[in-house]
Structures are given as structure tokens and as C-alpha cells.
């Protein structure tokens, strides 16, 4: 049963206008999360099929290259087409990559990570590895293959750090902020907000009304409402908003 917290009233579906929602996910076992997303959309009047793909599309590829029908596609990186909703973190903003260390480790800068083990998040989400590794490279630090530990999610990457398996972990600022004091952590590096994650709209001939209903439904759900459903998305994703709604926040100094 879906949790009722924060959910809007049930809406009647518009018959005959089924659209497809496709989610590119790193989750290997996704059936429960897929079913919960479908049930939630049904309750909100979004008549959509939910398809799951475990391989991320190539950045910049056209939707036709994926065999995607009319509807919406979730991707953790920029892809062809218009982004209809952006994924936001726990503070309602675009994700901010950070390198996190233990306060007791004595690591004060990225340069001090030279020759040390680091934990990253596997997959296509640039927040979990690419942006943070680029920041290390800018300081002349390039961890060897044996020094890079790839975890399935942000919690596991932090777990490697907290259990002294690595000296630093990639994380996302909104996700990790609430854990800093309780876990004795420090942010050693904070990057710029990373754009791209969210729902992209494909051609919507004959289904524009249903697409609009589905978009409205997606903006009403947050991770705190149904954490099991949100396992389909990167762990830092807290909800979805229109691209314009966070523009002012993200551009602030």
C-alpha cells in the first residue's frame, strides 16, 4: 500500500491516451519499485505504462535511437529532447557533488588524497563519480584502478569511508548534510551544481493531456512519501520540479 503522506487526491484517468514512462536506473532488482510507481501514477490519473531500462542512454542521443514511444524518459544525464522536469536534492536544488572525509583523518585538501583509496558511486550519474574525479585530477590526483572502490549507491560509498576502507567518499551535498555531525564527517571539496538529471519529454502527438497529467503527478511525489519507489532513481533525488523553478536558487552565489 502506498503511503498517503503528501499525496494529492485520486484523479480519473483519460481513457485511450496511454503514454510510456521509461526509467533508466542502476537498480538491478526493480520490480517492486516499478509496481509502486505504476500504482501511484494510476491513483493520480496518469494512464501510463512504466518501462525500466538498466542501461543509461548515450548522452545527446535522439529518442528515436532508443525505440521510445510517446511519453517521458528519466535519465541521470542530459539526453536528446526537452527536459520537462528536473530532479532535485533534499534542499530542492540541483545536485552538488562533494568529497567527504572523516574529521579525524587529517585530510584538509584534495591534494592530500594522492595515493589514497576513495569510494565512488557506480553508474552513469555524473554526481557519483565523474565530477568528483575531475576535481581530483585538477589537483594532480588520479587514483589508480586499485584505489577506486565503486559502490552501488551513496549510502554504500559513505559506508566504505565510515568503516575505514577508504579515505574519502563521493557524495551529494543535500543527501549528506544531515549526516555530517552525527557521523563525524567533513566536506573536503564542494563542486558546482550538476544539471541534466530529470524527466525528458518525447514526441507527444495525441497524448499531450496525459503527459501533462503524468508530469503533474510526478511533481507531487517526494522520496519521503515512498522511499521504495524512489529506489529507481539516484539516491540523492528527493523529488521533481519544473526546470524554471530552481533556476534562481542554482544561479545564486
Topology:
Blueprint: E1 19-24, H1 31-43, E2 48-53, E3 71-75, E4 82-88, E5 97-102, E6 118-121, H2 130-138, E7 148-151, H3 154-162, E8 168-172, H4 173-176, H5 180-183, E9 185-190, E10 198-201, H6 208-220, E11 239-241, H7 247-251
Written description of the protein model:
- This protein has 253 residues and is an alpha/beta fold.
- 23% of the residues lie in helices and 22% in strands.
- The protein is built from seven helices and eleven strands.
- The strands form two sheets. Strands 2-1-3-10-4-11 form a six-stranded mixed β-sheet, covered by helices on one side.
- Helix 1 links the parallel strand 1 (19-24) and strand 2.
- The longest helix is centred in the N-terminal third of the chain and has 13 residues, at 31-43.
- The model is unreliable at 1-16 (pLDDT under 50).
